[in-house]
Amino acid sequence: MTVWIGTSWKMNKSIAEARRYTADLLAGLNDRPLGDIQPFVIPPATALAAVAEAAAGDSRVILGVQNAHWEDAGAWTGEISVPQAADAGARLVEIGHSERREHFGETDETVRLKVASTLRHGLIPLLCVGEPAEVLQAGGSASFITAQAERALAGLSEDQLARVLIAYEPIWAIGSAGRPAEPEELHEPFAALARNYGGRVAGLLFGGSVSHDNAAALLGIQHVDGLFVGRAAWQVEGYLRLLDIASGQTWQSTGTPAGTTAQGTTTTQQQGSGEPL
Q1: What is the pLDDT of residue 57?
Q2: Which of 179, 216, 222, 236 could serve as a FRET partner for 84 with CA atoms 20 to 30 Å apart?
Q3: Residue 91 and residue 88: Cα distance in Å, rounded?
Q4: Dist CA 128 CA 237 (whole Å)
Q5: Residue-averaged pLDDT of the chain
Q6: Per-residue pLDDT at 272 exceeds 60
Q7: Which of 117, 123, 125, 63 is nearest to 94 (CA)?
Q8: Which residues fall within 8 angstroms of residue 142, CB to CB, at 6 or more apart?
Q9: Which residues belong to the active site?
């Protein structure tokens, strides 16, 4: 099973900062066997081409874009198309994040159109679903997010579904004002997503106040195939630590697992920083 560990930088980082992050990330991966872990990074559109250039064809990390229009070209001021995103180096498109639904008028229909366009051009759609706090309090989380997913993925073939990632990001858990989700709050939503899409999509991810302290527990929840991370991965050292957690290793700067010395004797593992999403 592929374990997806990714981060979106949102509206952060200059081109120079993005280049440095990329170089440091690739250097950090050299001593880390990824196995079944698939890293992905979604920079701002302004830095995507620079990040792709800095990666110089290194395929270990999938690059993405935070939004793309459903039309291939045209009079859509301020937008970029999926072909343009691909031309800049994207292999993945983030679609339907709650911030875009709230602030930019994203609807279930525009999300559906963007998913279809992304698939049509051979990229990976990362569909974001999530409910507000009042839905959680009313006990309607599972039905809310499955309805979002059903509307976004309507009409897709099984082959198309197999290329889709779904990220469950409850609105009450994301951003600087969010609170970490308790594992018991996630069991029912992920069970519902798995009933509809388990084994049919490329993976079911969780995002929302992910930190180094809770990442292992989140990955241990049934049906969770990976994590979509914010602030805890905005510094490359934090992202590498999350990859280490996913692989069950914590690495020192020498590239030796912190659980062992170069001779293989056991040492004490480091603890996470607890940085929020």
Answers
A1: 83
A2: 236
A3: 9
A4: 26
A5: 91
A6: no
A7: 125
A8: 188, 189, 191, 192
A9: 97, 169
> Is residue 36 packed enough to be buried (19+ CB in 10 Å), middle (13-18) or exposed (0-12)?
exposed
pTM for the whole thing?
Answer: 0.90
Per-residue pLDDT tens over the stretch 191-212: 999 999 999 999 999 999 999 9
Q: Which pLDDT band, with edges at 50, 70 and 90, does 266 fall under?
A: very low
What one-character-per-residue DSSP string does the chain give? --EEEEEE--S---HHHHHHHHHHHHHHHTT---TTEEEEEE--HHHHHHHHHHHTT--SSEEEES--BSSSSSS-TT--BHHHHHHTT-SEEEE--HHHHHHS---HHHHHHHHHHHHHTTPEEEEEE---HHHHHTT-HHHHHHHHHHHHTTT--HHHHTT-EEEE--GGGSSTT--PPPHHHHHHHHHHHHHHHTTTSSEEEE-SS--TTTHHHHHTSTT--EEEESGGGSSHHHHHHHHHHHHT--B-TTSSBTTB-TT--B-PPPPP-----
Closest CA to 277 of 10, 3, 2, 4: 10
User: How far is the C-alpha of 166 from the C-alpha of 172, rounded, in Å?
Assistant: 18
Structure-derived torsion over alpha carbons of residues 195, 205, 66, 46, reported in degrees to the nearest 10:
-160
Rounded to an integer, what distance in angstroms lies between the CA atom of residue 244 and that of residue 93? 25
Q: How many residues does the chain have?
A: 277
Token pair in block for residue 183 = 């594992």
